[in-house]
Structures are given as C-alpha cells and as structure tokens.
C-alpha cells in the first residue's frame, strides 16, 4: 500500500486540532456547537464532551482531529490541511450541527456539489458559505481525495472509535452504510497552500459584494503545477528557513532568560533589605500593570452599583444628545417630534441629577457626574423645544415613513438595563 | 430607486454617524459592537453608491447625493476603533445590560421604510413614458393620459 510524506509545511493552517499519525487515512471534524464569540479566544474553552471526541479520534489513529465552527474560514483551513497530506482519504464529520452556522451541512454540500462560480458552496443551508481564500485547485483536490463519512449528530465516542478503526483496515469493513478500508495515498502529489486572507470576515460579506470580491481574487496561471511544486521540490528552501527560524527561537529564549535574570538582579539591589522576602509579591504586580491597562479608556474607578447606574445612564445621553444635534440640522428642526424628544430627555436628565444629588456618593464623584449632566443640559437647552410646530410628515418634508428619528434616538436611553435605579429615584 | 430614497437613507446615516464617533470615546472603541456598526455603515454607503450609479435619477441630484455619500463615508472611516476588538460585555467592562449602544444607534436606519424599493420601477416607467403610448405626444413632464 502506497503511503507518502505530507508536505513539509503540513499542516499549513493553525487551528483547534490535534495532529496524530501522518500516515493515517482518516481525519476527524467534530462540529463545535457552542456559543460563538461570547468569550475571548484566550479563555474560550471547548465543551468537555467535544474535546473528548477530538481526543478519542486522535487516540484511535486519526491523522488530524479538530473542531469546526464556521462555514467559511473553518472549512478553508480544513481544506488546506487535508490536501497537504495525500494519505488522508476519509473525513469523518461528527458532533451536533452548529446552530446558526449549519457548518456540518455546508461541508457535506461541499463534498457533494462543490462550489459555484461565486465561490459559494452549492446547496448549503449556511448563511455565508463562501470560500474566497483558497485556490480552486485545492477545493477540487479536496473533493477528489476524500470520502466524507457523515456522522453529523453522533456524539458517542464508541461509534467514533469504530469509524476511525474501520478506515485503516486493509479489507473493506462495514461501518454504518459504508464499507471502509485504507486505499493508500491519493495518486497525485500533495498540495501546499494556505489562506490568502483576502477576505478576513466572510461572515460580513453581503450578496451584492461577491462579484466585486471575485474581481480581486486571481487564480494562479498554472495553479496545479505551482502548488504541487510547492508541495514537493520547494521543500529544500522551506527546510532552510525552518532551521534558521528554530535557531532564532532558541536565541530569543536565551536572551529572554538573560533579561529575566538581569531584572531579578537589579530589583534585588533596589529593594531594602527587609523587603527581600516579599520580592516575588512586589515584582509581579509591577510587571503585570502595563499589560492590563495599555489604553486607559475608563478613566474613573467605579466603586459602587449606585455610581455605575448613573454612569451607565449618562452613556446613553452621549449618543442621544449627539443624535438630536444632528437632527437639528435636518428637517426635524422645524418639526414637533425633535422638541418633544428633547423635552423628554431634559426631564430624564433632571431626574437623574436629583438622584445624583441625593445619592450616597462622595462629593467629588457627585461633582464629576453633575458636570456631565450639566453639559448635556446645556446642549439640550440649545435645541428646539417648541412642540407646537407642525409634524414634518404632515407638511410633506419628512418622507421616511411612519418612523421617527427623534423618538427612535430617544430610545437609546432605555438600553442601560442591567442595574435597577437606586431607591431615591 | 428614487431621489427621495437616497435622501432618506442619507438622513438616517447622518444621525447614525453623529452618534457612533461619540461612542468611540468610550470603551466601545475596542468593542466589536462599534466595529460592526462601523463596518455596516461603510458597507451600506457603498451599496447606496452602487445603487445610485445604476439608478436613473437626474445628474444634478446624483452629484449632490454622491457628495453627501462621500462625506458620510469620510466620517464613517474616521471613527476610531481599535484593530483588536472584543465584546466589552464579555471583557467585563460594559455593564449596561444586554443592549448595545452602537448597534442600537444603527437600528435608527430601520425607521426609514419609505419610499419602498419598488418605487424605483414606477419612476423609471414614468420617465420611459415621456412619449405617450396612446397618442404618441412627447411630453415635457410625465403626464398620465
């Protein structure tokens, strides 16, 4: 059975996956059906059961096993990583479908139907199944090289293990509706490619933009040859770069160690004799501080819920007053809705001021908040307040429909909902 | 699409673009909420420009609207947003509740519901029928015969 070496850069794309046996014929995709973007990437944790499936697959002998969430960049990374290893002949997609993304159905549709001339996966139910960042050659190869084993909805580790095991049997082995065996490496050379990142946020792409985006995406003149060359002969050059990079990394580590020792030494000299025992405690916060606050956006320290309530309320006024000022330059200046909204905002602001006055905040904090209130008051004072003006819709100058910008803008004040008003309000 | 359509859209963008820069002075400057709102405004203006170029509105109106779009575009691009953004609620810094000020400001565009998009065709038909189909008379202004 023919097995080949993957490309030297294999796997070219980073991601949430584990690398196992490079000569294995199977790769696993575990659909990551977890809240997206609700946690920062550095602390975002993958649910235990999904992580377990990824591990089970790799321990059973998969070449690659990882999670997949997005129907565009996520799939593109998988394509790049798989075409770089011709030994991979099966892609097992398991786990529960990703809500909102429908990534499982997207990858299935990619295998079944491919993409259209707009680089959109044909027949996918996903919202933005666009593959703008990888060469077409890689997509064609991906579809030729692989057989997709559809285990979408399957979360049983036993089934996953059986699936992986079946893929590397020498003789056809029944697994669900499939007959699986290791057919050996794909007959053509590996393809080495990575994401071009021409479209960093495919999820933001509107349908009407696609044609324009496509104009910027030019396929290489001899795609297949070039890419394969990169996958094969070009390796010597890559190897050289890798060696240099490794050396640089080692030097950096050594320099970092020297710097650390110097800092410790110097700080030891600076500290008074009695403080030596507490050296570590004293050093760490000093070091950590700059990283924590590189941009001092929140200038004031908010200490109590009461203060937070008033601060939040004033945040809304920031936007509302700015919107009113813009509307004052519009036909709304002669209408009745802007004055009505201005009066309403004034009343709310007045009430807020009374609340701040009677709050338990320190005088300094009260003053700071009241200054902001007064600033808003002043700006509102300069805006129209005569509600006897005719509605500009009636006059025929406002033609936006039944909606109203002024009353719409006023609603921004209702967004601060987390804290209940203090009792004095 | 009619001149009124473009003018109404730009009225909306004027208001939205008055509010977004204000939020960029707050923690929103490093938030995906503001960054997303900015992207949507820029894209909306781009679409408006494309639609206007395709439309059959008068050249005088076109240049006026185009100048307005360009101005809005400039303001939108000048909104200060950091390159690395994350939701400030997630980061624990935005404590206003589940709402989002920049995205809600963008919602002001939804106040605009007229003229409906179908109006364009009607206007095109009016212009196309300057020569009356029934009597063949060439009219200086659209007239229903």
Topology:
The complex is a heterodimer of chains A (about 425) and B (about 140).
Chain A: E1 17-19, E2 26-31, H1 48-59, E3 64-68, H2 73-83, E4 90-95, H3 103-113, H4 136-145, E5 147-152, H5 157-167, E6 173-175, E7 178-180, H6 210-216, H7 223-231, H8 235-270, H9 279-292, H10 305-328, H11 337-357, H12 363-381, H13 392-395, H14 405-410
Parallel strand pairs in A: 2-3, 2-4, 4-5
Antiparallel strand pairs in A: 1-3, 6-7
Chain B: H1 3-23, H2 32-54, H3 59-78, H4 101-106, H5 119-128
Task: Give a quick summary of the entry.
The complex is a heterodimer of chains A (425) and B (145). With 425 residues, chain A is an alpha/beta fold.
Structure commentary:
- The complex is a heterodimer of chains A (425) and B (145).
- Chain A is α/β, with parallel strands linked by helices and 425 residues long.
- Chain A has 3 domains: 216 residues, no CATH class; 38 residues; 110 residues.
- Chain A has 14 helices and 7 strands.
- The longest helix of chain A has 36 residues.
- Chain A is elongated and about 85 Å long.
- Chain A starts with 16 loop residues before the first strand and ends in a 15-residue tail after the last helix.
- About 6% of the residues of chain A have low confidence.
- Chain B has 145 residues and is mainly alpha-helical.
- Chain B has 5 helices and no strands.
- The radius of gyration of chain B is 20 Å and the shape is elongated.
């Amino acid at each position: 059975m023919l097995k080949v070496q993957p490309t030297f850069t294999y796997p070219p794309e980073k991601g949430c996956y584990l690398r196992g046996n490079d000569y294995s014929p199977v790769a696993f995709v575990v659909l990551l059906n977890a809240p997206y973007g609700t946690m920062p990437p550095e602390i975002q944790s993958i649910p235990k059961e999904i992580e377990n499936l990824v591990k089970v697959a790799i321990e059973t002998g998969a070449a690659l096993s990882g999670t997949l969430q997005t129907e565009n960049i996520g799939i593109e990374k998988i394509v790049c990583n798989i075409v770089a290893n011709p030994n991979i002949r099966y892609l097992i997609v398991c786990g529960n479908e990703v809500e909102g993304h429908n990534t499982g159905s997207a990858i299935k549709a990619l295998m079944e139907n491919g993409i259209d001339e707009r680089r959109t996966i044909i027949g996918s139910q996903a919202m933005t199944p666009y593959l703008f960042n990888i060469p077409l050659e890689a997509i064609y190869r991906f579809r030729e090289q692989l057989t997709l084993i559809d285990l979408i909805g399957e979360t049983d580790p036993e089934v996953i293990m059986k699936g992986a095991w079946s893929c590397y049997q020498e003789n056809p082995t029944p697994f669900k509706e499939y007959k699986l065996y290791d057919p050996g490496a794909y007959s053509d050379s590996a393809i080495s490619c990575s994401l071009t990142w021409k479209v960093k946020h495919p999820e933001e792409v509107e349908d009407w933009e696609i044609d324009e985006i496509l104009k910027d995406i030019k396929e290489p003149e001899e795609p297949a040859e070039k890419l394969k060359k990169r996958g094969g002969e070009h390796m010597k050059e890559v190897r050289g770069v890798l060696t240099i990079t490794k050396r640089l990394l080692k030097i950096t580590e050594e320099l970092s160690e020297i710097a650390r020792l110097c800092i410790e030494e110097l700080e030891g000299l600076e500290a008074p004799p009695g403080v030596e025992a507490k050296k570590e405690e004293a050093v760490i916060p000093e070091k950590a501080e700059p990283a924590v606050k590189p941009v001092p956006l929140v200038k004031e320290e908010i200490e109590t819920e009461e203060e937070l309530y008033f601060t939040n309320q004033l945040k809304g006024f920031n936007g509302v007053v700015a919107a009113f000022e813009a509307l004052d330059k519009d036909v709304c200046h002669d209408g009745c809705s802007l004055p009505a909204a201005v009066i309403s905002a004034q009343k709310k602001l007045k009430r807020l001021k009374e609340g701040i006055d009677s709050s338990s905040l320190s005088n300094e904090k009260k003053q700071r908040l009241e200054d902001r209130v007064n600033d808003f008051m002043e700006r509102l004072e300069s805006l129209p307040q005569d509600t006897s003006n005719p509605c500009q819709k009636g006059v025929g100058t406002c033609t936006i429909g039944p909606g109203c910008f002024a009353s719409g803008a006023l609603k921004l004040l209702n967004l601060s909902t987390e804290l209940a008003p203090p009792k004095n309000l | 699409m009619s001149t009124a359509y473009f003018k109404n859209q730009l009225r909306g963008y004027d208001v939205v673009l008055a509010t977004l820069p204000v939020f960029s002075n707050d923690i929103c400057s490093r938030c995906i909420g503001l960054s997303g709102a900015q992207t949507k405004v820029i894209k909306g203006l781009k679409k408006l420009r494309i639609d206007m170029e395709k439309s059959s509105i008068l050249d005088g109106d076109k240049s006026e609207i185009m100048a307005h779009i360009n101005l809005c575009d400039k303001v939108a691009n000048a909104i200060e947003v950091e390159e690395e953004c994350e939701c400030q609620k997630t980061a624990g810094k935005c404590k206003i509740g589940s709402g989002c000020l920049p995205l809600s400001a963008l919602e002001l565009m939804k106040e605009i519901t007229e003229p409906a998009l179908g109006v364009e065709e009607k206007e095109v038909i009016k212009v196309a029928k300057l020569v009356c189909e029934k009597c063949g008379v060439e009219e200086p202004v659209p007239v229903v015969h």
